[in-house]
Write a structure and sequence with these properties.
Length: about 60
């Protein structure tokens, strides 16, 4: 019973990590009037390039 409760708790906690947050940040940037951009950054630990999503200055 204890393992069932713990495993279901972990499943509920980590389901938010599975969802793609890039779309959410793009919508939030555009809603706030910011410009949305992606940059290719090097991850020094893995040696691979990853995409970084940022909100830039407000659109004039």
């Amino acid at each position: 019973m204890k393992t069932l409760v713990l495993s279901s708790l972990f499943i509920l906690l980590f389901t938010g990590c599975i969802q793609d947050s890039r779309q959410l940040t793009k919508e939030e940037c555009e809603r706030g009037g910011y410009k949305y951009a992606t940059e290719k950054k090097l991850n020094y630990r893995t040696g691979k390039y990853e995409l970084k999503f940022i909100c830039l200055n407000k659109i004039k």
